[in-house]
Amino acid sequence: MAAKSSANADRRARIEEMRRAEQARERRNRLITIGISGVVVLGLVGFGTFVLMKKSDEQDKKDAAAKAPIAAEKSWDAAKLGRNHVETAVKYDMKPPVGGDHHPVWMNCDGVVYKKAIAEVNAVHSLEHGAVWVTYNKKAAADDVKKLEEKVGKTKYTLMSPVDDQAGAIMLSAWGKQVTVDNASDPRIDAFFTKYVQGTQTPEPGAACTGGLAQ
């Protein structure tokens, strides 16, 4: 009888020891899980902070670029540029025009490259919608024209076309703004795009650049 009681006591002791060991393992697993979760959360928070800071830095750079003056840029008083819709010929004071009365239909300007000359009265309407119009004449090198076509092709609210009788080899126009450059590597091109594609000079920001005239 005594031997049986001793065996039962030993069995209970082993069961209790196993139970304590299992509880200890569960506690360790919980701590490991909590630790891993904490590391993951901290990593996600850190990554999110990094992304937000990077976006903030990029926006700050864009804002700074949008405020910085562009060398040799010409400006016209936007308030004095007509904005009437007309279906008759318009004589502009500059070439290419940067504003003024224009046709009711705009040129499509969702990154469109026109291989032939386009009507000024339609292009001016695109400028009113916040587009940048890139133009060139026969003085422009073929490689420069190709680079500009690629840039325009991937930039919304831009259009490009030849203007044989313009003064400069390459010219960029926005509503009330214009700059002349000699080649596609000129840093003022990027600056002009950053500042004036849907820039603050736009009379009708957000207006359509599709659904207009295709050539």
From TrEMBL:
InterPro entries from the UniProt entry: DUF3105 (IPR021454)
Assigned keywords, A-Z: Membrane, Transmembrane, Transmembrane helix
Residues passing through the membrane, by range: 31-52
Domain of life: Bacteria
Protein name per Swiss-Prot or TrEMBL: Putative membrane protein
Species the sequence originates in: Streptomyces venezuelae (strain ATCC 10712 / CBS 650.69 / DSM 40230 / JCM 4526 / NBRC 13096 / PD 04745)
